[in-house]
Amino acid sequence: MNIRPYEGKDWPRIWEIIGEVFRQGETYAYSPDITEEEAHHAWIEYPAQTFTVEDDQGAILGTYYIKPNQPGLGAHVCNCGYITAPEARGKGLARAMCEHSQDQARKMGFKAMQYNLVVSTNTVAVDLWKKLGFEEIGVLPKAFNHKKLGFVDALILYKLLD
């Protein structure tokens, strides 16, 4: 597995991966009807940096972004988003991306990492983030409109990086 900075040629496959996840409406707050242009802005243009995960043959299996969570005096805390292709789930990619992102965050000068809206029903992700040292610092009651389950709680997770 190789995690490297995003390159423009990666976009068609990344759009395929993230577009499917957004359309499912189960783990990300983006509209299930998000356009490719909107997704490109949100995942590629807006973040400070985006990364691509590929297997040993160069097939793209996942992606993550890193960005300041807030501007100005809150910009020392970063936020990340991670998406793994369906065929690569359960193979350690999310763990590898999270660990890589923490190293990147430190290199970029961030002091902490915050996940703002972790859907409570996404138990695989919640359990992994907690295993990797993130603390649940808040619950947002019925803050996520899950496409299948309706309104469910969302969690705020936080980890100091130093």
From TrEMBL:
GO terms for molecular function: acyltransferase activity, transferring groups other than amino-acyl groups. Residues 1-162 form the N-acetyltransferase domain. It holds the Pfam family Acetyltransf_1. InterPro entries: Acyl_CoA_acyltransferase, GNAT_dom, Mito_N-acetyltransferase. It comes from the Bacteria. PANTHER family: ACETYLTRANSFERASE, GNAT FAMILY, N-ACETYLTRANSFERASE ACA1. This is GCN5-related N-acetyltransferase. It comes from Desulfatibacillum aliphaticivorans.
